[in-house]
Amino acid sequence: MSGLLQIVAGVLLVFFLPGYTLVNLLFPRKGELDPEYDVVYRSALGMGLSIVIAIIVGFGLNAISTEERGYVTSGPLWGLLVGITAVFIVLGWYRGAYPSAGYIHPSLYRPVGVKGVVRDGRSEFQRKRTIERLVYERESLLLDLASYEDRTSTSNQQRRTYYRQRMEQARARIKEINRELGALGEKGVP
User: Fold this and answer.
1) Which of 54, 88, 108 delimits the end of a domain?
2) Are residues 59 and 148 in the same domain?
3) Is 96 within 8 Å of 114 (Cβ atoms)?
4) What is the residue range of 128's domain?
5) Using the 8-state DSSP alphabet, how is residue 116 labeled?
6) Which of 43, 78, 108 is the last residue of a domain?
7) Which of 10, 69, 90, 112 has the fewest beta carbons closer than 10 A?
8) pLDDT digits (tens, 9 = 90+) for 12-34
């Protein structure tokens, strides 16, 4: 099993990760390469650049090798490729290529294209997370509302009363969510 993991890690490290992280460093905004097929372009460029980076690292290790000691072995090759990938990740994060790092901790959130440390970045990230949560809750309530309406027509009188109460509660919560979204500055709130 460890042999399989080594193979997968080696393939990722030689054929994908260094180039992909370099592309994210150079083009931190999503949709910057192409609005529709950005992921495809990033992946393809990442594969090509990874092969180029691995070849350059191999040439560099061969250049510093001596007759007595050769450096083109798996240890130095892995170490340099992992180090280069880590440097590209850190620099890409600094340029804002990984906004989802804010899910790990809000202090890791960096808006795209912002220089220096931004104190408002955390509150912006939290605002966006709150908007996402509220929109998801509203969509869930709208689905529940539709199912409650279906159930009022097929149930007995006691259940109809129950589902009507649930519909009123759901509508009240939807109105409250819309007010919260409006206060957060979300456009397109009915």
Assistant:
1) 108
2) no
3) yes
4) 120-183
5) S
6) 108
7) 69
8) 999 999 999 999 999 988 888 88
Which pair of tokens denotes residue 126? 């939290």
Asked if residue 81 and residue 131 are part of one domain, the reply reads: no
Rounded CA gap, 19 and 53, in Å?
A: 7
Rounded alpha-carbon distances, angstroms, from residue 76 to 8, 70, 84, 98, 175: 18, 10, 12, 28, 61
**Are 100 and 25 found together in one domain?**
yes
Number of structural domains, the chain? 2
Question: At residue 47, does pLDDT exceed 70?
Answer: yes
Phi and psi based region of residue 116 (left: phi greater than 0; alpha: psi -120 to 50; beta: remaining):
left
Domain for residue 190, yes or no?
A: no
Q: How far is 121 from 124, CA to CA, in rounded Å?
A: 5
Write the secondary structure of 36-58 as one string of H (helix), E (strand) and C (coil). Answer: CCHHHHHHHHHHHHHHHHHHHHH
Q: Is residue 65 part of a domain?
A: yes
pLDDT band at 44 (very low <50, low <70, confident <90, very high): very high
CA–CA distance, 151 with 10 (Å, rounded to integer): 56
Co-location of 103 and 155 in the same domain: no
pTM score, whole prediction:
0.58
Return the number of other C-beta atoms located less than 10 Å from residue 104's C-beta.
10
